[in-house]
Specification:
TIM Barrel; seven-stranded parallel β-sheet; two-stranded antiparallel sheet; 10 helices; globular
C-alpha cells in the first residue's frame, strides 16, 4: 500500500510527512533544560540528515528551551526547513499548563519566538488552545493582524472542532490542525475528514494513546510480524490513513529518532491496515 511522502502546507511549503516534534528535548515535565543537552543538539542535527524539513515546537516547551535549542543547533537554517511554533499556554512549573490566548499574552509569546528562533517571519504559527476565558474573536483578530504585519506566514489551530475551525476561517486561512489522534484514539475523526476535504494538514499528537487494549495487542502482533516496534506500526498506520496527516514523533534520543524515521519503510498489507481500521 502506497502513500504520499510529502504534503503541500498552506499551498506553498512542501514538507516531508515525517517531521519532528521538539517537546521532548526539554527537561522533565517539559520544564527547564534537558538532562543531556549535547544529545538534544545531536537529535536536531540528525533529524536534518534523515530528511526532516518540518519541526513542531512551542514557546511553552521549557518554556523557551525547545526554541533556543533549535536555533543553537540549526541556525542558519536549511533553506527548505519549515519551523512551526505555538502560543497560548502560560507555564508555571513542571507539567503545569495554563491556557492564555489573550492578545497581550500571544503578542509576548510571538515576539519571543521570533527573537529566540532568529526569524523575521514564522512559517506556521499555531494557536495552542482556544481560551474559554477570552472571546475567540479577539484571539483570531490578533492572529489575523500579526499575519497581515508579516510576522506570521501561515496559521494553524490545536485541539479544535470543525465548528471552531470554521469560525477561525472567517478571520484567516487555517492551514493546519493539531489534535490528539491515534490508531487507538479517534475522537477527532470528523475533524480529520474535514481537514482532508479542505487540504488542511492534520498533525496528530500522542500517536499511541494506549487506552484501547485490543488495539494495542493488535499493534504488537503486527509489529512482531514485521520485525518492527509498536510505535513504528502506529506511525505507519497514520501515514496510510490519510495523506494530509503530518507526523511529529518526538524524542530526546538519536537512536529513537532513527527508529521513528524508519516507520515509512514498513510494508503494511491491506489486511494489516483493515484490521487496524476496524477495531
Amino acid at each position: 500500500m502506497k502513500f504520499d511522502k510529502t504534503f503541500n502546507l498552506g499551498g506553498d511549503l512542501t514538507v516531508n510527512r515525517i517531521g519532528f516534534g521538539a517537546m521532548r528535548i526539554t527537561g522533565k515535565g517539559i520544564w527547564g533544560p534537558p538532562e543531556n543537552k549535547s544529545e538534544a543538539i545531536k537529535v536536531l542535527k540528525r533529524s536534518m540528515e534523515l530528511g526532516v524539513n518540518f519541526i513542531d515546537t512551542a514557546d511553552s516547551y521549557g518554556p523557551n528551551i525547545s526554541e533556543e535549542l533549535i536555533a543553537e543547533a540549526l541556525y542558519p537554517y536549511p533553506k527548505d526547513l519549515v519551523i512551526g511554533t505555538k502560543g497560548g499556554f502560560l507555564r508555571t512549573g513542571p507539567n503545569q499548563w495554563n491556557i492564555d490566548a489573550s492578545p497581550s499574552h500571544l503578542e509576548n509569546a510571538l515576539e519571543g519566538s521570533l527573537k529566540i528562533l532568529k526569524l523575521d517571519t514564522i512559517d506556521l504559527y499555531q494557536l495552542h488552545r482556544i481560551d474559554p476565558s477570552v472571546p475567540a474573536e479577539k484571539t483570531f483578530e490578533f492572529l489575523k493582524n500579526a499575519q497581515q504585519k508579516g510576522k506570521i506566514k501561515h496559521i494553524g489551530l490545536s485541539e479544535v472542532s470543525v465548528e471552531e475551525i470554521k469560525m477561525a476561517q472567517q478571520y484567516f486561512n487555517v492551514v493546519s490542525v493539531q489534535n490528539k489522534y491515534s490508531v487507538d484514539f479517534r475522537n477527532w475523526e470528523s475533524v480529520l475528514n474535514y481537514c482532508n476535504e479542505n487540504n488542511i494538514a492534520f498533525i496528530p499528537w500522542n500517536p499511541i494513546n494506549a487506552g484501547n487494549v485490543k488495539k494495542i495487542e493488535l499493534l504488537n502482533k503486527i509489529a512482531n510480524q514485521h520485525h518492527a516496534t509498536t510505535h513504528q506500526i502506529a506511525l505507519n498506520w497514520l501515514l496510510h490513513h490519510s495523506n494530509n496527516i503530518l507526523l511529529i514523533p518526538g524524542t530526546s534520543s538519536v537512536t529513537h529518532l532513527e527508529e521513528n524515521m524508519k516507520c515509512d519503510s514498513i510494508k503494511l498489507s491491506e489486511s494489516d491496515l483493515n484490521e487496524l481500521d476496524k477495531i
